[in-house]
Structure formats: structure tokens, C-alpha cells
Amino acid sequence: MEKAAGSPSVGGSYPQKNAEILSSQYGINLFLAGLLLTFAWAVHAVGISKSHLLSYLITLMLIQLLWMLWYLGRSCTQRRLIRDKDTHAGARWLKCGITLFAVITLILDSFKIGYYIDFSNCLSPTEGIFPVTHAVHTILQVYFLWCHAKDIIQSFKTLERFGVIHSVFTNLLLWTNGVLTESKHQLNEHKERLITLGFGNITIVLDDHAPQCNCTTTTLCSIFSQGIYYLYPFNIEYHILASTMLYVLWKNIGRKVEHHQQHKTPFKFHGITVGMIFGLVVLTSTIAIVVVYLIQIGRSKIKSELALTMFYLHAIFVLVLMCTAGIVALLIYRLEDRSLDNSKNPARKLDAELLVGTAAGSWLLSWGSILAIICAQAHPKYTWYNLPYSILVIIEKYIQNLFIIESIHREQEKVNDDIKTLRIVTISRGSTLSLTPSYKEIYNGRAAPQSGEVPCLLKGSVCGRENDRGAKEETSQDKSSVMHSASDISFYSRNSVTNNKRRILKNIAAFLFLCNLSLWIPPAFGCRPEYDNGLEEIVFGFEPWIIVVNLAMPFSIFYRMHSAASLFEVNCKT
């Protein structure tokens, strides 16, 4: 067996660096091959069918299943060994989130199995094997991430690098497949809506991959086919979260960690009532807007324009609130003097890179809309609301990224134990020792019980004298007055100001968390004005703009969910 950990040396690190490079290149080539296969199926390339794509994905999932089973079996035999853990990776709330998405993904797989059974006469067997394999893959992967997301692998490092990176890109390909399938469905609905808005010059045949046979049970087929597309957003988020957690595991292979105490930061609802109330109002109103939008859009030209206007006005109001909250939080940070934590942390580094990288997707769409409004010759009234909306999207993500990245890099405020157990000692009448309640007791509104017992602060001198003088000293102790010095009062005042700042920051983080969840809902469930307003298609052309939207929209959707996850962490940390 390979040694668990060797002494750091140039000769030892060189092969490991090569293994990292080789494994990353293996993963990239694996992904590119699958990406081209997916693209070939999407454009109906000659000789490429959906069964070829699914066979490739099934093979990748089976290989990952074998690796995970091998890893779990080896970990079980070595469970008594003490292993290094990355305390920043695989947070409990992140595991709970991916479990929720995984459960909904399993429901999606069951719908696909039912869909295959109803159309089994004209569907390839791979379309029935795929959801079964995917369900097994999902169950085992979630268990693996719950148990081993924090691992820092120090044995069989070369083999493990290939296994983990294979898992990363397998999940990315499953994410790509889900995004493409969902986008094709949204595109077909979009083409039908544009006709009601008066854009009759856009005549493109619907891209239909429906089975060429009749369903055995019409009602069930309708439920399965419609329900699948409402569940895809959760499946998409599941795979992208799994790939990010596995990527952190890959980066941690062979890493040397400093052993220090990690302070737990549980989530608490106390003190964030205001932020939660405003956030829930935004969330509720957003759900109502999405429902009305999906009902009205495509019914008639007037109803579609009203739906777009309603969406833009609501989004502008929410984005203004988010920008204001973010600016207030950054101003509070400027007033504080706290150092940043620049220690090596793969999870935190990945969070920051994903925030900026995925924000570029919506920035691209926003700049496209701004240019379309400027260059278009005719401007329907509802399109003018798109201008402030697009500008605010750019500004809001800029501000929010600054707030989140600075928050996750700020060192946690550590309360000095000496301050917590502070005793104000006053000497009166020569040798009388007087003790006040601790700062912690004062802050919590509790005074120390008057039991007559005196803590031994100076065991060598004070306690000896207390024992010698007996009852007389105890009587003098009880009669002594409690005096607070000016410095202690000043400290209490500073602490009160700090607590107020922390409370404001926690409310802002809670509000932004719910706002990001709110803004994730519209594009994830088909409320996409970038498709429906039609102005961009006229300026850039239908096909070029649709390509831009289909490439950028998945990143924009992921940005909102990732921002919500990061803000949840900020709330716990603040």
C-alpha cells in the first residue's frame, strides 16, 4: 500500500503535480467528447441519436459508481485511522441542500421511467436504462458526499485524482444534458409566444424530439411529459452542486493542512426578523408575479405586453432594494477595522471564482439588451422598462459580489476569554477585595449569586489571606461597593455598537438570501423576458440571440442559487 503521507520534498511533489495535470487533462477531454456528442444530437447530426449520448453518459456513471464503491470499501477498512479533514468544505447546510435537490431528482427519474414505459414501443432501451442508472448514481453519490466531502486524501493519490476528476466532469456532462433538454423545451414555447407579440417574421420550425408513436395511457403521458420539465431546474442545480463539492475534494488531495480549532457557526433566526420579513415579502410577490406571467404570456399581444411590463417593474423594485442593502453592508465594512483571512482555502477560492464567473452570464444578456434598445428602430412601450432593469442587473451583481467575497474572506471576530471572565477588582480599606459580576453576566442581565464565596484570582496571596481572616473578611467583602471604571464602560459601549453592526449585517444577508432565491425562481421555471420581449431577436437576429441566451442563461440561473448558498454561509459567519 502507498504510504499515507510522506515527508515533503521536491522529488515527492513533482510526480503529484504531474498527476494533477494529467488528471485535469483527462477530465477536460472526457467533457469535450461528451459536449460534442450532446451538440451533435441537438442539431440532428447524421448518424448520432439520443441513444448514443445516453450510452456515453451511462458508461461514465457506471465508472464513477465503481470508483465510489472502491473508495467507500477502502475507507471502511481504514475507519480507525485518523485522517485530515477540510473543515471549510462540505458544510452541513450544503449537504442538506444537495440532498433536497437529489430527492427531487429521484422523482424526475421516476417520471422518466414512467414516460419510457408508456412509449416503450418506439423508444430506445437506453432511455429506460438511463433513469435507473441515474437514480442509483444519485443515491450513492449523495451518501458519498455526506461521508467524505471533507476528506483530504493522502493515500493512492494518483488513482484518486483520476477518480474524483472523472466524477466532477461526469456531473458537469449530466448538468449540460439537463440544461440542453430544458432549454429546447423552453425554446419551443418561446417561438409560439413571439407570434402573439406580433413578430410574425420569425418563422423557424419547432425542434421536436417527441416519440413517433402513440402513448399507451394518454393521461399519464401528459403528466409525465409536463412534470419532467418542472423538475429539471432542481436536477440541474443538483449536478452543479455535486460537481463543485467534488472539485473541492479533488483540490484537497495531498494538501497539507494546519490543525487549528474550527469554530462552529450554526444558523440562528434570532436577530434577523426584519431581514426575513422583507425577504419573505419579496419571495411571495415574486411567486405571484411568475404565476401571472406564465398564465398571461402568449395569450394575446396586450396580455403579453402587460405581463412583461409587470415583470420588469417588480424586478426593478427588488433590484433597487438589493443594491441599497449591499451598499449599506459595504459601508459598515468600511467603518470596521478587521483583517482578511488570506490562508489557503480551496472551497472559499472556488466560491469567489464561481460568483464572478457565473455573473458574466447575466452581464452578457444585460449588455445585449442595452445594445438592442439603443440600436432598435422601433421601441414598443414595454421594452423601455428593459433598460433600467438591465442596468440594475449589472450594478446589483457587482455590489453583491463585493459584499459576499469580502464577507467570506473576513476573519471571524474572536471574543477574548479574558474579557468574557472580566472581574473588576477594587481595593478599599487597605486589604479589602471587591469583585463585581463578570462582563458576560452583566451583558446577559444576570448578576452573580451572593453566596459569599470569593473566586481565587491570585491563589498564592489573595486566597491565603481570605482563609486567614475568616468571617471578618467575608463580612467586609459583602459590604464593599461595586465600581465600574471608565474603561470598562467604554468597552461595553463599543461592544454594543459592534453588536448593532452585526445585527444589521445579518439582516442584510438574510434579506439578500431570500431575494436571490426569489430571482432564481423566474428563469428556472420559464419566466424569461430575454426570450419573450422580441426586441433582441430583431436587432441581433433570431438564431444568434437564441444561442447567446441558451449559453448565458444556465450560468445566470446558477449564479442566483450559488449566491443564496454563499449568503447563507455569510449569515452563519457574521
TrEMBL record:
A GO CC term attached to the entry: plasma membrane
Subcellular location, record wording: Cell membrane
Molecular function terms from GO: proton channel activity
GO process terms (BP): inner ear morphogenesis
InterPro entries according to UniProt: Otopetrin
Domain of life: Eukaryota
Pfam families per the UniProt record, alphabetical: Otopetrin (PF03189)
Transmembrane segments: 26-47, 53-72, 93-117, 129-146, 229-250, 271-295, 311-333, 354-379, 504-526, 538-559
Membrane topology, from the record: Multi-pass membrane protein
First-listed, main subcellular location of the protein, grouped into a coarse class: membrane
Key words of the record: Cell membrane, Hydrogen ion transport, Ion channel, Ion transport, Membrane, Transmembrane, Transmembrane helix, Transport
Protein family (similarity comment): Belongs to the otopetrin family.
Protein's name according to its UniProt entry: OTOP1 protein
Organism: Glareola pratincola
Phylogenetic placement of the source organism: Eukaryota, Metazoa, Chordata, Craniata, Vertebrata
Gene symbol of the encoding locus: Otop1
